[in-house]
Amino acid sequence: MAEEASMASITSSMDIDEAQHVSAQKTVPETIFAKSEELSVSFYANLPTEVKQILKGADFYGESYSGGIDTETGYALVASQRACFVWQYAQSPKGSPTCYIFSSPGEGSNSCPFHALVPFGATREPGLVLLAPHGELRFWESISNGLAGGDHFSTSQLSLEVDEYITNLTRVDPQTYVASTSIGHLFRFTLSSTGGKYHLAARAFSQPSSSSLSLTRLLPSRWTLASAGLQPKAGNISSIAIEPVDTVGIAVDSRQLWALVDSRLQKWNIHIAEGWEEPTLDEDLLPSLHKALREQLGAWTTDDERLDLELVDLQVKSARNLLLLISFSAVEDENSMMADHGPFGAQGPRRRYALVHMSQPNTTDTIKVEGVRRVPYQSTTSSGAPIHPRIHLLSGAELIAVHFGDVVALCSRYSVWEDRLTLKYPYKDQMLGLGVMEFTDSDQSSLLVLSAGTIMKASLSLSQIADFDPESGRAHLIKSILTQAILYGSIPENPLHFSFPPDVDEDGLMNGAEQLSKAVIESDPEIIRPDHDLTSQLTSRKERLSWLIHFINDNGVLTKLSQSSRQRLATDAEKLYACHQLWTALNDHLDHGATHSILTEAVYDYMHSVGNTAHEDVVRAFFKYRVGDVGKLFPFVMESVNRLSKDVGRSLAASLPESISCILTILSSALDYRAYNLGVYGVTLPMIKPWTSRPGIIDTVLGMFDVATKFLDGPSDAENSGAKTEPRKQLPALASVLFTCINERLEWLRSIVAAGEAGTEVDRKELSDRFAQLRPEIFETLRIHGHLEHAFSLAEACKDFRSLASLCHKDKVWPPQENPHMSRIENYIQKFRDEFTAELYQWYIEHGELRGLFTLEDSQKSYMDVFFAAQARSSISWIYDLGQERYGAASAALVAESKTTDSLAVKHFALSVGKLAHLAQIQDGVALDETSFDAFHDGLDFVSVQQNLLEEMRTVLSTLRGKQSIENQVDAIVKAKASTIRDRRALLGVFKALIRLMLQNHALSVEDAVDVLTLKDNSETIEDYATALQLLSRVQDLPDARKASSFRRVWCRIYSHDNWDQIRQTANVTDSQLMMRLRGTALYNTLSIILRAPHHSPGYDLDPSEALVTPDVAELASRWPGMPQEQVEALERDYRAESNLVASMKLEDVYHRVRELAKQDLSDGQEVHTP
Q1: 219: closest CA among 208, 231, 229, 232?
Q2: Where does residue 1059 fall: left (phi above 0), alpha (psi -120 to 50 degrees), or beta otherwise?
Q3: Does residue 817 sit within a domain?
Q4: Lowest CB count within 10 Å: 644, 874, 955, 1155, which one?
Q5: What tens digit of pLDDT does each residue of 184-206 get?
Q6: Pairing mode, strands 418-423 and 496-497
């Protein structure tokens, strides 16, 4: 009956307390500290003034404090090494409750006492038990004694061994308490009443005596049989727990106690009524825990010793169902510990924690591990003052709270949901105790949290936790943490700090952060409070995003964000910043009396295009909900400007400055914000597809620059002359933004990331070429409108040295001392060296200012050397070489120039001066290079041949009257000099083309000269055939196949020069007359010349049969690049006709006779007969 009365009292007490809680919640407005769909934390009650004073400024590292909230009695307490404070926590939520103060046993101890409140029901105040670590026990029958100093208490001393100390104190029921020690002893405290006065008797756990008359001694029971001969091993008892009273199969007068003893689990049967205890289980858990930890959590090492597994705390969920808290080493070594977490490696985790679900299927079975899950907590070097972590069960063990000194970790038994309550200032605050509030038939479960500053209430939604989606839940959880950090983290009185759990999921972190950022820029009402003052609202949103990235950095998880995720967060922030600046500019524009705005017009047009005009104020709606689309305004701004330029009824002059200002405000603000916050967001350039340099943005900025330029270049009148002032001032900034955007896009297109996308290289080439064309035009526009210095700055920034050279010579070029930019040129030479001088010298060359090039100071000679060495510029470098008395280099340059020039006069000059320079080397002691010297001779001979040919052709023109066109001159020469090829149209066309080049003073190639020498009528210049052969024999840079073909064509034309049928008619012809005929042939004259100076070049001397092979079409196409295919084929036919003609003459016998005759005449010393 007494037991039932006691239970009734407890129940009554709980009902009253619950009513007090509800009443307090109804009358006191909530102060929210944290809130998510699953969890809400709010202010619950104040601490007594006395407690606040003792805890304010407390050194939690140097002094020991503990506390608790006893929801059974409705009281809370805080104990220190010197005193214990007890108060009714729901008495006055906003005021200071009455505080009962008691002296702690064992004053001077380094640790605070263990404590337990003694419930007596709702009719009287509870009692208090304090147990010092060294074993001194104090009992106050009523806490009301604390109002009078707390001197009236009973005391006793537990019998402890040397260095033995108390480790736990727990309440079994209102009359029974159990304490444990560091060497495995268990003590039972029993509350009894004598004469209306309560006493607390203490004794060690004991086995039953032989004289006991209890029926349980006489009859064997399952407990006595199971424990026969069991001797529990001694050790440090880290935790003790009591099975619930409603455990099936256990008598009311017996309770089951579980204890963690070092690495072992012990179970005791406490016979409450009979006054004795017996052990029923003693099992080592380490082997099964090591195995489970590796299999289910993937422990980082297989070395049990290095894993350093520790059994921390224990709770009993139900009959033979246990929940164990374990800790283990978090990192492999000190180095990895220092690098694991935290921006500077100083917060590396030391210990990780896990919950182990265990069961004992039957009373005689061993303990079985059912499951392991991580606790979202790890101790670090920055953790709060150490306390012994404890497990608290909520809602029938559906939810689990683990109490650490600076964190309460929350887990669900049936879902993957987890969360944490973390103190903001763990070095001066501590979570001293927890209290579980259970409500019947409710979806809510509540946890009271006692900290050094307040009591908080954590309300948990069981249904939301049960429905937690493991797929999307991670990102949702991260977003929830971030959202709470933004909404509640800045509240001054909020004791909580928001942080991510250990091993935060990277994908969840990125998704959560990006979702929250998107919610801010879209003015999600859950994040952003509605505010008609848009300036204030924009400022609030900027602060939210700033808080977001600083929160990520403060938690040391920025490195878990991918580069693309960081850039998306940075982009949101810079767009919001740009919109804030744009809104400010719009307000200023309207405040100055403007009645129209290009910006509002563009916003209306955009909102209409996306079908989003159902707002009372469309412009404000854009800035509230469409900040992410600010880049899409650009084409609408440009469209408005274009409409103005075409609308005669509206003035472009009035709106152009605002249009330019809109573009500049958006881009400049965004780019400045980005540059300033690169480090904060951890952004690595180049940006990935940056919105500030998309093609549409670049086109708009360029279009705006063009409109401004046309407006400024247009006619000025009295009406718009003043209107040009502002656009003229805006030109430099507009040009700078344009250059920044283009360079940014080029950097992206050059990046490794962009290289993998199709079309990137094409886009890069097109934009680069376009930029190269635009720069000089923009620099010139700036110069014309008075911004030359800015043009120089831009050109310097993008290292456009060609434009710098051009800008330096826009005024007077010669003489140099009158050029106003000469000092700038010298500075650029010193600053940029070869990069600038290369473009400077090239400018002189391209603009015909060689006098400027060769009058430079001697200090620039080294740059001139590099310039001419970097690229072949033989047409000029020889002048510099001669000036430096480098005759060999000058000679080589002139030879090279003679080979590339198409001017006969230049070729002649280059070879002549080059020969002199070559000879000048001899005076410096350089040996004569015969090969090079012969090359000059051959080149000059070739020039002489062309000059003689040209003179021969011009003799024909001397007979013409008046000034004739080139074509008429060519026709006259062809008519007089090409009679033998009139029927061969292709060869005639080639001949005409070559004659045209000669008349234009172009230098011919050797092949061209050979064709002219052998295709023209040579009745009076029969020696030209031999000249052609000699030219071919000396040429070095002609492909062998084409050289051989040229030789064959020359010999074909030599053989076909004469009428051999007539020569071979010997009727009435003497031998001397026949020999005279043979000596008059082109064949004889040619052989006489080449045999006098024989050459070993293949093809130099060919008989008729060797000369018949004709070049194919491919060879002819190589010989005449660019010639139409039909002409090439016609030319091939003409060549074949030449060979066929020679073949038909059957000259084999004649050839040998003429050859013998030429040899004989040479041996006899006769002169060659030339008709």
Answers
A1: 208
A2: beta
A3: no
A4: 955
A5: 999 999 999 888 889 999 999 98
A6: antiparallel
